Amino acid sequence: MSRSLKKGLYVDERVIKKIDGKTPKETGVIKTWARACTITPEMLGFTFAVHNGKDFIDVLVSEEMVGHKLGEFSPTRKFTRHGGKMQKDIDQSVNQRP
Known about the structure:
Radius of gyration: 19 Å
Largest sheet: 3 strands, mixed
Oligomer: single chain
Number of strands: 3
Helix content: 10-25%
């Protein structure tokens, strides 16, 4: 369920304080643990290092990201692959192609 329009967007105050009055070139990468923070137009061009539970993943904010959350661009799970006989056959057929 989305957040109520009456309440407005959730933007972490610490993130806003870090970008307030600065340009993307002078700040560099901004570390944050605020995955629930909504991306606003003021954040365009900044690079955030968003924590995924293990390490930080760099997220360069672009125009299409406005309105989404920072955590959407820092996946917390790593897909390795499915196992079993079918996967082994698929891997062998891929390796045999010239």
